[in-house]
Amino acid sequence: MTNQNDISTLAKEAWIYDIPSNESCRLFLTENNGMPEQVWFLNNDGKVTDDLALFAKVLTLDLQQEMPNKVQEKLNMLASVNGQAFSMAFPPTGEKQLVRGQVSGIAKLLQYRAGFPMTDTPKLREQKTGDIWSVDVLNPYTQQTFTIKISEPMIDGRRCPSSIWLEGHNPEILDGLCALLSADMVSSDLSRIAIKLKSVLEPIISISGTEYRLHNFSSYIAYLLLGRYEKHFYMDKQINILSYRNVVSLDTKKSTNGRCFSHELEVG
Prior knowledge:
This protein has helices at residues 4-10, 50-65, 68-79, 102-114, 172-185, 191-200, 217-231, and strands spanning 15-19, 25-32, 35-42, 86-90, 95-99, 131-139, 144-152, 154-155, 158-159, 163-168, 203-206, 209-212, 245-248, 263-266. The protein is of the alpha+beta class. The strands form six sheets. Strands 1-2-3 form a three-stranded antiparallel beta sheet. Strands 6-7-10 form a three-stranded antiparallel beta sheet. Strand 8 (154-155) and strand 9 (158-159) form a beta hairpin. It starts with a helix and ends with a strand. The model is unreliable at 249-268 (pLDDT under 50).
């Protein structure tokens, strides 16, 4: 996460814009060859919440590691995220525009700086196919609840987490985080989603093994998602991607000459 000293140094080179959303924040953006390269945020009090910082960290990964066409695709997706709509004086003329919410406003500003078309992208449909695993979360600050949902359709004979979204009274920036996670969950290459999970989760190595510091909503969301990948044998506790193995256990009560058998089948 970018610390306060880093922000003071980077801000001298950054493009800055105040976003008057319901959960208002100041956007800082550095660029490279006309393309957004790194983002971070401050609240009105000059501080940053963990969830804002982690969203910025995950978004920065995409800005730095994806090709421009993929960056445009992900910004279009973020621009479609609904929240509490508001009017924003949009650069360069200051003309008022209605945006869907905090995440959408951030995405549209990045589209503008990158020179991408800022069309009114319709809200993208989450891939809510197959089984949907869910858990309710109580926000201790507001005493309101929201639900984390993960779609797990059957793919090649086993369930696979394919999208994650929230329903209820959650901080808007978490919808942006889930959208960025979902964008990489649809790929058969798990390396991208593994990188994002590692960027959000803070490991604690103890005698009992790897644990994670769950001191904000973002890390909790990432931890639950990792748990679903573990459940279906895609990753281990350390976020290492597992090879595809289909383990078949035979009835151990049956034996031949006192020997029990089991078979491990390598698939793919």
